[in-house]
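Dear Dr. H.,

I hope your travels went smoothly. While you were away I took the liberty of generating a structure for the chain from your last submission, since the lab meeting agenda had it listed for discussion. I wanted you to have the full record in hand beforehand rather than looking at slides cold. The sequence, exactly as received, is reproduced here:
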Amino acid sequence: MSEGFEREEGQGALFLNDKKEEGSNQPDYTGVVKVNGKEQRIAGWRRESQNGRKYLSIKVSDFLEKKPEATFQETLADKVPF
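The corresponding predicted structure, in token form, is as follows:
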């Protein structure tokens, strides 16, 4: 996923999510980590425990594959009734 940079096994980086919308459940931090030879998405949320101790809750997941956008002709072909 990261072009021009080879991440080492078990290493990654988290960056502040500057696109997070107020009140959303989007992660506070996002990034990439290499696990078992595969780059994966990592997300982190700032949390506070019941006793007031602050921590970072994380989740590692596969990247979502982006579906290619349909061309104008494909879209038009879906709407023309013949």
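Two observations you may find useful: Helices lie at 72-79. The mean pLDDT is 84.

With kind regards,
E. W.
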